[in-house]
Specification:
Blueprint (H helix, E strand, L loop, with lengths): L1 E5 L3 E2 L2 E2 L4 H7 L4 E6 L2 E6 L4 E6 L2 E8 L3 E4 L2 E2 L5 H9 L5 E4 L2 E4 L4 E5 L9 E7 L1 H7 L8
Parallel strand pairs: 1-8
Antiparallel strand pairs: 1-2, 2-3, 4-5, 5-6, 6-7, 7-13, 8-9, 10-11, 11-12, 12-13
Length: 145
């Protein structure tokens, strides 16, 4: 199954802005939750999908390997950090990142990587978010020029 992401809208049948209770119901209440700071993050499908909420509405959806996730025909989990940067930076003028993350603010897409000498630099998680979600946290990111 391939999950296609649409920036600022959703991933497959998971829509940003969906109320927590409705998303839990969508997955037949098969989820676990973890508190992270002031937030409660839900984990679905054996932790392959995560959801973070603002005002009980999904503001961030994380999709974890080994899911098959595509954006504009790009198979995102089979692309390296450099390939993702090259492909998406031509569409985005607002890119933030470091060695373990890339965020394309104006595309609503973020990537988290595990980096190391013997570890391939392919994403562990692809996330999509609402404009407000990262507007509130972008002070923690370093802009890539």
């Amino acid at each position: 199954m391939t999950i296609n992401i649409t920036p600022f809208v959703g991933a497959g049948n998971i829509k940003l802005g969906t109320e927590r209770a409705k998303l839990r119901e969508q997955y037949q209440n098969k989820y676990s939750s973890r508190k992270s700071g002031d937030d409660v993050i839900d984990y679905f499908l054996n932790n392959q999908i995560t959801a973070d909420y603002d005002d009980n509405k999904a503001s961030f959806i994380g999709l974890n390997a080994p899911l098959k996730v595509e954006y504009n025909g790009l198979d995102l989990f089979n692309m390296s950090y450099e390939q993702i940067y090259d492909a998406l930076s031509v569409k985005s003028k607002d890119v933030y990142g470091d060695i373990s993350s890339l965020t394309f603010m104006d595309l609503g897409i973020t990537f988290y990587f595990e980096r190391g000498n013997d570890i391939p630099n392919f994403p562990l998680q692809v996330g999509i978010f609402t404009r407000e979600y990262y507007r509130n946290s972008m002070h923690t990111f370093k802009r890539i020029e």
